[in-house]
Specification:
alpha+beta, 3 helices
Length: 86
């Protein structure tokens, strides 16, 4: 999995819970947090405060424990590959 996959997914879906991302990409949540931190430093995503409604809105999980990430980069930016920083 690479940052482009996460970028594309969040750009398309606008926000997702960390557990949803872990399931989607078959990755450990801690590994995803590291990748999301990179995207956060680049100004592409932001973490939504715990207790905020998740994207599905089903209400079956404890909202206080849901870690949700939202896309804040420009629309369509998920289509372009991330450029390495030097």
């Amino acid at each position: 999995m690479i940052l482009n996959d996460i970028t594309g997914y969040l750009a398309e879906h606008r926000q997702a819970a960390l557990t949803d991302l872990a399931y989607r990409f078959g990755a450990d949540p801690d590994a995803l947090r590291g990748m999301l931190a990179v995207l956060e430093r680049k100004g592409r995503v932001r973490r939504i405060a715990n207790g905020a409604a998740c994207s599905s809105g089903c209400g079956k999980c404890d909202q206080a424990s849901v870690e949700t990430w939202a896309w804040v980069g420009p629309p369509g930016a998920g289509d372009a590959p991330c450029q390495p920083t030097t």
